[in-house]
Amino acid sequence: xxxxxxxxxxxxxxxxxxxxxxxxxxxxxxxxxxxxxxxxxxxxxxxxxxxxxxxxxxxxxxxxxxxxxxxxxxxxxxxxxxxxxx
Length: 86
Fold this sequence. Notes:
This protein is an all-alpha fold. 58% of the residues lie in helices and 0% in strands. Helix 1 crosses helix 2, helix 2 crosses helix 3 and helix 2 packs parallel to helix 4 (74-84). The longest helix has 16 residues, at 8-23.
């Protein structure tokens, strides 16, 4: 859910599977209802997990280079900060 207060575990579980599938050579696609919020959050988390970005802001900028309409909601950005900036 987009507006859940603490989504850390959901993001951790999802990104773990995404990274595993990527490392196994599978194609990975991101999508949610609008393709902006949750999909963008998982794309940012994936870049962080793969160490392809040093900060959440850098990862988000990279994602927006591919899909400018990405809009990581404040609650989801806070969850990303708790996971990757702790």
